[in-house]
Each structure stands twice: as C-alpha cells, then as structure tokens.
Amino acid sequence: DADAYLTPPRGVSASLGWHVDDVDVLLVMLCGEKRFRVAGSRLGSPTTIDLTMRTGDAIYIPALNFHTGGGDDLSDLARNNHSVLLSVAHRPLPAAAAAAATRHVTEWRTVRQALLARAPSAGWEWAGTLA
C-alpha cells in the first residue's frame, strides 16, 4: 500500500500521534519538511530517532515500532511548514534482507552525495541538500 499525505502551509499535521503500524513503513519526504520521531517496540521505549525530514529524506520504520510525525506543539505551524509525504507499507523483511537493504541505502547515499558534489550548482535545487 502507498499513501500520500499533504500538510498545507500553516496547516496542522494530521498525524495520529504516537502509534504503531503492523507493517514496515518507508516514509519519503517529497516536498517540504516535518519532524518525525521513532521509538522502540515497547510502551515507554526511548526515542531513538528525532529528525526533521526534508525534501528527499527517507525513514524506514519497522513494524510495531512507535512513531509520530509533526510536533507536539505548534512549532511546525509557527514555522509555516508544509509537506508532501509518501508512505509505502510492506511486510517485514527477514533480518538478512533488512541488513542488505540497509547496506544498499548507505551505498546509494554515498553515490548521491558524490554526484551532487560534482553537479553544477545552478538549476539543481530540486536535488535537495546533502545532509
């Protein structure tokens, strides 16, 4: 399954608050920015990821891990943030396949950063930041 979520400028995030999904989820920020936090699979688990996703960023959230998008306060609203987020849900991968996927993503990021570093600066704004 794939879903797209739009938060308009000065809009309030439609996040469900802290919750778990019964499938693995890949979140890809298509446009804008939004804060995401991910914790473990037990109630009260500490936050392991606290990140403001920006255009081009992605997060993989394993099934049954607590997570939330947007802020707990009006900070996103005050910053006039907007976002378009793609959420792709799929069945959990076996451990070996998940490790291989992580290696491939790391390799992709390295290659992407090298390509962007060599690209002309004018006209490549759509490619996002190197962070």
Question: Main attributes?
Answer:
single chain; 131 residues; alpha+beta; six-stranded antiparallel beta sheet; globular
Task: Write up what this structure looks like.
This protein has 131 residues and is of the alpha+beta class. Helices cover 21% and strands 34% of the residues. The protein has two helices and six strands. Strands 1, 2, 3, 4, 5 and 6 form a six-stranded antiparallel beta sheet that branches. Strand 2 (24-39) and strand 3 form a beta hairpin. The protein is globular. The two termini are 28 Å apart.
Question: Topology, please?
Answer:
Blueprint: E1 2-7, E2 24-39, E3 47-54, E4 58-61, E5 67-69, H1 75-78, E6 83-90, H2 95-118
Largest pleated sheet:
6 strands, antiparallel
Low-confidence stretches: none
Broad shape: globular
Mean pLDDT: 80
Gyration radius, rounded: 16 Å
Number of strands: 6
Beta-strand level of the residues, as a percent range? 25-35%
Q: Which structural class should the secondary elements be placed in?
A: alpha+beta
Distance between the termini: 28 Å
Helix content: 10-25%
Number of helices: 2
* N-to-C order of helices and strands: EEEEEHEH
